[in-house]
Amino acid sequence: MQSTKTVETDDQSLDAEPRPLEWIEHTDDIHKKVVLVDWMLGNRCNYSCSYCPPALHDGSKGWQSYDDVLGMIEALQEHYHNRLGRRVWLQLTGGEPTLHPKIKEILSAARAHDMKVSMISNGSRTERFWLAIRDKLDSLILTLHLEEAEFDHVHRVIAILSEVIHVQVNLTMLPERFDESYEMARRLGADFPNIAIVMKPLRLEFGDALYPYSDEQIKKMQERMSTPSAPNGRLRHPRGTMTRFDKAGGYENLRPNAFILRNENRWRGWNCNAGLESLRISGEGKVFRAVCGVGGQLGELGHKLALPDDPIICDRETCSCVADILISRARWHELPKSE
């Protein structure tokens, strides 16, 4: 199970700063000053999974140019690091980002600008490739796609990377092959107890609705297969668990999947730090506060760009993306009941 607990805290002091009715924040303080940039470099992928929309793997968008990428890296450094005092952490995605022809140069540029770097990858590149770039990465989210991946190869890649960087493995949990994926998660947890393992629930057409999982499957997806050490003030990875504080003064530490599986990822009307703790760059080079696109487009790579200084009020019915769930948010007033 995810690490959870509920305790009562003292009543708010009359002299204390006002606080919201409910709020969700990063459990570890080190993550509160990080802006995580979810950056889709293009949509070409060497996999074609049944649950993945063509727009995420068909190569129709092409790769962003190195010059535009470098210009955006410089803009991020100026706004978030120099102006707001935040640490920029790039999370490069695709498609399959390791296929970008300039991926090594992009990683080097991020390092030269003192940025942290992660990638979300299917891990299919050769062991030689991963050995060549692992010193340019701070962490890797390796998604194990059961339909396409070779488990033994993925196992070797994890061994290479987990020696030097933080590794998280997301297993895509197809209901019809659930038991097979579950056993892979158990094996990885036994072989690599210090990596993070997430059994990822799939959403129909990447929308709000989950695949038709049984109650038993939902319960199993909340099990903890490994025990990676917490950062404890060291910036080893960009995000961790979130702590939810309720109106009664209690709190609970939750992993992002728990919000989804418990149908508690609904924060319409809350103040959200999207744009301050997060940024989304689409495959077309369009820039948004978060994956959900709240607040509309901020600009575009190679063109005019206005990065935000303030939070925004959420206008979305649900928060379906894990990257967006891992953003601080607060509810200051009672919200009107929906009809």
SSE layout:
Elements: E1 22-26, E2 34-40, H1 66-83, E3 87-93, H2 103-112, E4 116-121, H3 127-133, E5 139-144, H4 151-162, E6 166-173, H5 178-191, E7 196-201, H6 215-221, E8 242-245, E9 251-254, H7 256-261, E10 271-272, E11 278-281, E12 286-288, E13 299-300, E14 312-313, H8 322-325, E15 329-331
Parallel strand pairs: 2-3, 2-11, 3-4, 4-5, 5-6, 6-7
Antiparallel strand pairs: 1-8, 1-15, 8-9, 10-14, 10-15, 11-12, 12-13
Structure summary:
It is built from eight helices and 15 strands.
Question: In words, what does this structure look like?
Answer:
The chain is an alpha/beta fold and 339 residues long. It has a single domain, classed as Aldolase class I (TIM Barrel), CATH 3.20.20. Helix content is 23%, strand content 20%. The strands form two sheets. A nine-stranded mixed beta sheet has the order 7-6-5-4-3-2-11-12-13. β2, α1 (66-83) and β3 (87-93) form a beta-alpha-beta unit. α1 runs parallel beside α2 (103-112). It is globular and about 55 Å long. It starts with 21 loop residues before the first strand and ends in an 8-residue tail after the last strand. 39% of the residues are buried.
